[in-house]
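Hey, sorry to bother you again with one of my protein questions. There's a protein on my desk that I can't quite get my head around. No rush at all, and the record is pasted right below.
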Amino acid sequence: MNSKICRFSNLLPHSFICFTGYYDTNLVIIIGQQSHTFQLHETKSHMGESDGDRWESAADFIPISRDPDLTPTENISQVPDKDTKQNDLPKSVLDYYLQLESLLTSSTFENDEEKQLLEEKCVDQIKEDGIIRILYHWDGSRIVERVMVQCSQEILITLGDLILPYTTEIACHNTASHVLELLIIRVIGLIYKSPDSVTRLLELAEGIFRKLCLNVKELIDNPHGSYTLRLSLQVLVGNLVEDEKKTKKRWSIGREQFFRISDPQNIHPTLRRILNKFTKRLVKEDISGLVYKPQGAPLVTVLLQLLGKTCSKYFEKLKSEISSLLGESESDYKEVDKYGPLPKMALDPQGSYVLQALLKVASKSEMEDMFTRYYESTLIPLSLHPIANYTVQSLIEHCPSSAVAQGICQKLFPLFEDLLAETATGVVISVINCARRFAVTSDISKILLQSFHIPEDQITFTFRCIMSLTTYDILMEKIEHSKKPTQSGKPRRDRFEGTLHGSLLAQGLFKLGEISLLEDGMCTLSEDHIVYLCNDKHASHAIQAFLSSLNIAGNVKHRFISTTLPVVDKLVTNPQGSHVFESLWDAADLELKSRLAQGLLMKEQVLKDNTYGAIIWKKCNLKSFKMGQKGWEASEKRKKRDLQEFRELINDENDSVSNLVVKKRKVKKLKAAS
């Protein structure tokens, strides 16, 4: 927004007022050749109020400085409009900041004073050009982040003071919000790392969170503001619970600056007070409204995951409010006449997300109560629903007792065929895992055979039926069709389709060790089928899950690896197949590795000329194998021994403080050796 100059007759006659920006807190009044700067007192939230409501009367303006050389058009930073997504910086200004960034990140300074002088120069330039103007530019915000990552505590506080008046506006901006998030991460981290000089840091932290609390409603409704709230909460607690990939939010450059707190009792006393106030303000919001909002549901989920160990009073209140929403019914779905009304929260895309988080943190008695009141009578339709089935999976995965597990299995075992037809493979895997965990007496193999209509004497086709997610009869029809020649007289290829949900079902079975039905089918595949499955974008993940499963015996894996030996050269040059080959290599014993290496050595030039093949050549140390097999075998044995020691260290349950120090040293040594 451009600076505004207007006559302010009721304050001083013949004077001019210059607003330096929409969200600025300073007022410059120019009288003749002199100027007076006043500080405006804020009375209400910056957002959602009219200009007249945001400031006190003119009598309350406080003079803070005088600059006799200031004119209405000089040295006044321009603050862009808050709705501007991209503020265009002049090329000369941008080039200057890029040079500063290059110096700060790549230069080796003779002493700390030289670096501090450069940082101070950068901050002075930011002040002159206007902090908001810089942060609203994509490259400008990135440069400020670079400065923040490595600057001294004094410079960080200076930048924080520049950002503080515009906290809410910055939090709601797509590029500027990254800088605010990094500022919060660094300030909280320095409070723990430099406990002797934290007074100014604590004041800055309190100021930032006070600004956030004042405008919670507006922040929640904004995608960037909502993420800033969630990240701020996680930083205060010292525990990241939100998946970066799921949020689709660009992490700040300084994400490694995040300070983790292993024990919630170790939170700094002042930060705990800030956390309690911040949490209290968030929990005051209308939870029933947040649960169904795209930006509100993730915030509620983060609160559920964090408050259990930090603020038990608010945690119980939050759980109670969310549980009460399960009583709301939904009658607008296609099979309401058959099953009756269902819990609205389970059917809603955002509500189901919150419900899954609630099921993860609920106590045993609360889980049993929710199952009895809301799930027992509606388990079948919820399992078949494309959204609600995810809540059923969470319920089964966190099943509280054998009695509940027995009831779930009795209802869902006969439903396997319908669940697979609706591609609810996650529910099927969860039920199988639950049955094994609580020792529910049932023949899983027989149930799966019945679901795919496979005769007991045709078990070898089970793997193909699962991967293609088709019944035995349909698969046989496709096989018979493949035997008929095409119109041109060429033979058809007997190839079954590898589907996404079929691959997911197979992956789940392999991870659980359910291999009895699938072993013969996998190990009798034709070479054409092996190449197709290993190079397919869906089926290849199932093959990798089989080879990396800890619940499948090594001799079963070796049997499958032996069938792949004639075609390994067709895998290593493919994006998906190369990953499968890495899994083959990791699961193979020394003899099989030698045979795999010999097969690849015959295609040496093909491997070296291919991106994926070159990676395999290096990973398998084939250059050493070519020079001499004995030296290569000794190297592989040493790697295997080191890997075994590494696994034993990781799985060691005796994790006292002294043992952890020794373990860390050993792991570092093993990594260096490998």
